[in-house]
Write a structure and sequence with these properties.
This protein has 318 residues and is α/β, with parallel strands linked by helices. It contains twelve helices and 13 strands. The chain has helices spanning 13-29, 43-52, 78-86, 97-111, 125-131, 144-148, 168-181, 195-208, 223-234, 269-281, 303-306, 312-317, and strands at residues 2-5, 33-36, 54-57, 69-71, 91-93, 115-119, 138-141, 157-162, 184-186, 213-217, 239-242, 258-263, 286-289. The longest helix has 17 residues, at 13-29. It starts with a strand and ends with a helix.
Length: 318
């Protein structure tokens, strides 16, 4: 049995930045630091950071006064930002810069009087943050059927935004439905989408042309990991989302000659290696990697972690 690895796969620049913000904060300011919601959607990453001294909370009310507080990569609403400011919490914002870009686009469209439509999944942390970052109503759609149900006049000036874990392929049909139903629609340029989402989905489509089975490493609450598994199924390949090698079911491998392996943007390489080790125990004799895009994107860390602390409360505690 052969294992073929997708390229690219796993961590993206936004995830690397978010994890590094937590790790550096612990080293610089001391444990514990408090993180609102999961820093990224991966249980292994969260548990590893807990061991280093991170405490994950659902609400800011759980954060003690004066404690270093980190917002997750998915972004938060202005209400959360205002609550932190009112309590003078020392905050480090790990929001992915590409998510922050969506917030900025939304505010610009709203300032121009456009009705905002957000293409995304209800309940997702990024969607909740985006809705809460714009001082205007936002209509959430996840399908062309949702577009048909929008109670808006045909000539309403519309602007759409997209959840970053959706690719051009994911949103193309919904955007087409908006343009077919409404006469005045604007949206961000294709170059503004999340590069990591697009790259990983394209790599899986290429991978599925050469494999009998697709395994995606990632957590079940990871939107982009789930989408990679769905693409495998759309390509006609049995596809499974697993968190680590221990979840590999040997029955999946019956009659399989080539296994395709990829990982969502929040899954670390060590979990990919764990799945490879499990596949080796079940007969994998060759590990190969597809030719693909090499990502070299890097995002700057917050100034507080690049320079001496600008948090007076933290300095006093030190």
């Amino acid at each position: 049995m052969r294992v073929l690895l997708a390229q690219p796969r796993g961590f993206c620049a936004g995830v690397i930045r978010a994890i590094e913000i937590v790790e550096r904060s612990i080293r610089k300011f001391g444990a514990p630091v408090y993180v609102r919601h999961e820093i990224v959607h991966n249980r292994h990453v969260v548990e590893t950071l807990k061991k280093q001294g991170a405490i994950f909370v659902d609400e800011l009310s759980e954060v003690p006064d004066g404690a270093v507080t980190i917002f997750s990569a998915h972004g938060v609403s202005r209400a959360v930002e205002d609550e932190a400011a009112a309590r003078s919490l020392p905050v480090l914002d790990a929001t992915c810069p590409l998510v922050a870009k969506v917030h900025q686009q939304g505010r610009r469209y709203a300032a121009r009087g456009r009705v905002l439509v957000l293409i995304g999944h209800a309940g997702h942390a990024e969607v909740e943050g985006t809705v809460g970052q714009v001082d205007a109503p936002i209509h959430l759609v996840a399908s062309a059927e949702d577009v048909a149900r929008l109670d808006l006049p045909r000539d309403a000036p519309l602007a759409y935004l997209t959840q970053t874990t959706l690719s051009v392929d994911d949103t193309r049909g919904i955007i087409a439905a908006l343009q077919a139903r409404f006469s005045d629609v604007e949206g961000p340029d294709v170059s503004g989408i999340c590069y990591a989402t697009q790259h990983r989905q394209a790599a899986v489509r290429e991978l599925c042309a050469e494999v009998d089975l697709l395994l995606v490493v990632g957590s079940r609450n990871s939107s982009n990991s789930t989408r990679l598994r769905e693409i495998g199924e759309e390509m006609g390949r049995p596809s499974h989302l697993i968190s680590h090698g221990g979840e590999l079911d040997p029955a999946w491998l019956a009659g399989v000659r080539t296994v395709g392996l990829t990982a969502g943007a929040s899954a670390p390489e060590e979990l990919i290696l764990d799945v490879i080790a499990a596949l080796r125990r079940h007969g994998a004799a060759e590990i190969a990697q597809m030719a693909g895009i090499t990502e070299d994107v890097e995002f700057r860390l917050p100034a507080e972690l690049r320079e001496p602390s600008s948090f007076p409360a933290v300095q006093a505690a030190q």
